[in-house]
Design a protein that fits this description.
The structure is a single chain. With 373 residues, the chain is α+β, with helices and mostly antiparallel strands. It has three domains: 2-85, Rossmann fold (3-Layer(aba) Sandwich), CATH 3.40.50; 114-174, 2-Layer Sandwich (Dna Ligase, domain 1), CATH 3.30.1490; 180-371, D-amino Acid Aminotransferase, Chain A, domain 1 (2-Layer Sandwich). Helix content is 28%, strand content 28%. The chain has helices at 10-19, 51-58, 73-80, 89-96, 98-107, 124-130, 157-164, 225-242, 275-278, 283-291, 350-365, and strands at residues 2-6, 25-30, 42-45, 63-66, 115-118, 135-139, 149-152, 170-174, 180-190, 196-200, 204-209, 212-218, 246-255, 258-265, 304-311, 325-329, 339-347. Helix 1 links the parallel strand 1 and strand 2.
C-alpha cells in the first residue's frame, strides 16, 4: 500500500521506519527541502497549496496522512477530493484553532481551564473579567514547543503581550500552576462498514524545560485511577466524535489531583515515542493500520518506559549504551532547542528505567573533556 505523508520531519521518518516492514511504501510532501526522510521514500518539495503539485503527489497513492497539524486545510481538502485522507480535515481544523479546540474538548466532557478569545484590543476588558490573573496569552494558531505564547501577570501586560505575539487572533487562558503534565494517546480505526475500534496506550507523565518536552515516563504514576479513567473516557469521546482515523494525543495538566485538558494533537506524538520499544504495537504502526483501515494492534505495554529527547547537540552519538536503552537519531543538524533524536529505556521498575535513561543521556550529550579546552 502506498501512503502519502504531508510533512517530512522526524514523525514522518518514524512512520516510514515502522511501515516499511509492514509492506507500506511512502511519498512525502513538504514546503522545505531539509527533511528527516532521506532514503525512506520519494520527497516532493513545494507550495502545499499548489494544485498541480498536489495532483503529482496524489498520483498512485492509496491514502494520505499528515505528521504535523499546521498543514494547510486547503491542501487536505483538495487531496480529499482525489483519495482518502486519514485523519480527515475535521480533526485538523479543530486542533489548528485553540479556541475551537477548547470548546470541543469541553463538549466531550473534559475539564478545561477558564479561557476567552481575543481578536483585537476591543476584547481585552472582557477577557480580563473572564480569566483571573496570572494568565497565558497564546496565538490561536501555529504555536508549538512554547512558541507563540506569553504570560500575563498584570492587566497592562495584556496589550504588551498581544503586540509581542504579532497582534493576531489569540486565546487568553488561566495560568495553571500544574504539578505535572499527563498525556493520553489513543488510536481509532474504522472498517468498511464504519464500525469503530478505539484503543488507548497507558497514560504518560511528561516533563518540560523552556516549553520543550524533555522526558516522558509511562505508565504515569501518582495519579488517582478514577481521575485517569475519566480522562480516558473523554479521549475516547474525542476520537469517536471526530470520527478520527489514526493516532491522537490529548495533553492534560494535573492540578490539585484533577486533570485539565490543555490541547490535543491529531497525529502521532512526541510523548508516544516510547511505544516503539515499550508497547506491543507502536503508535506509528497503529496509525498506519488505521490509515489503511486494517485491524489495529494491541496497545498493551508489559514494562515501564522512559523516553528522553536529545535536544540541541549530541556530542557522542556512538556512545556505548546498555541493551535496554534504544537510541533514535533523526539526521538533523544541531541547533539550540532542536530535537535531534530520542532514547528510550525499558525496565520492570520505574527507578531502574529512569537510572538507565539518565546514564545513557549523559553519555550521549556530555562533551568530552578533550573538547572543552
Amino acid at each position: 500500500m502506498n501512503i502519502g505523508v504531508l510533512g517530512a520531519g522526524q514523525l514522518g521518518r518514524m512512520l516510514a521506519q515502522a511501515g516499511g516492514p509492514m509492506g507500506f511504501t511512502f511519498r512525502f510532501l513538504s514546503p522545505e527541502s531539509e527533511s528527516c526522510v532521506s532514503g525512506l521514500g520519494e520527497h516532493l518539495v513545494g507550495d502545499m497549496c499548489d494544485s498541480s503539485l498536489l495532483q503529482r503527489f496524489a498520483a498512485g497513492l492509496d491514502a494520505v496522512t499528515f505528521e504535523w497539524e499546521n498543514v494547510p486545510l486547503a491542501a487536505v481538502d483538495r487531496l480529499a477530493q482525489l483519495l482518502p485522507v486519514r485523519p480527515s480535515s475535521q480533526s485538523l481544523a479543530c486542533a489548528q484553532d485553540r479556541v475551537l479546540e477548547k470548546q470541543f474538548l469541553n463538549g466531550c466532557g473534559l475539564r478545561v481551564q477558564a479561557f476567552a478569545p481575543i481578536d483585537g484590543p476591543q476584547d481585552f476588558r472582557v477577557a480580563l473579567e473572564a480569566v483571573a490573573l496570572p494568565a497565558m496569552l497564546k496565538t490561536r494558531r501555529m504555536g508549538y514547543d512554547g512558541k507563540g505564547q506569553a504570560k500575563v501577570c498584570k492587566p497592562h501586560e495584556l496589550e504588551l503581550a498581544w503586540n509581542a505575539l504579532g497582534s493576531v487572533p489569540a486565546i487568553f487562558e488561566r495560568w495553571i500552576p500544574f504539578e505535572s503534565e499527563i498525556s493520553i494517546l489513543g488510536v481509532r480505526g474504522e472498517d468498511a462498514h464504519g464500525n469503530e475500534d478505539i484503543r488507548l496506550w497507558k497514560p504518560c507523565k511528561n516533563f518540560h524545560q523552556h516549553g520543550i518536552l524533555q522526558k516522558t515516563v509511562s505508565p504515569a504514576s501518582g495519579v488517582d485511577e478514577v481521575v485517569l479513567h475519566q480522562a480516558e473516557q473523554g479521549v475516547r469521546t474525542v476520537l469517536s466524535r471526530l470520527r478520527h482515523e489514526g493516532v491522537l494525543c490529548v495533553e492534560f495538566f494535573l492540578e490539585q489531583g484533577q486533570l485539565i485538558a490543555n490541547e490535543m494533537a491529531p497525529r502521532v506524538h512526541n510523548s508516544g515515542h516510547w511505544t516503539i520499544e515499550g508497547a506491543c504495537t507502536s503508535q506509528f504502526q497503529n496509525h498506519l493500520l488505521a490509515v489503511a483501515r486494517r485491524p489495529l494492534g494491541s496497545t498493551d505495554s508489559p514494562c515501564v518506559s522512559v523516553m528522553c529527547n536529545l535536544i540541541g547537540e549530541v556530542h557522542n552519538p556512538r556512545a556505548a549504551l546498555p541493551p535496554e536503552v534504544s537510541l533514535h537519531l533523526y539526521g538533523k543538524s544541531p541547533r539550540a532547542g532542536r530535537k535531534l533524536g530520542h532514547l528510550t529505556s525499558v525496565a520492570q521498575r520505574e527507578s531502574v528505567a529512569l537510572e538507565r535513561a539518565s546514564e545513557a543521556l549523559a553519555a550521549l550529550v556530555n562533551q568530552p573533556a578533550s573538547a572543552r579546552g
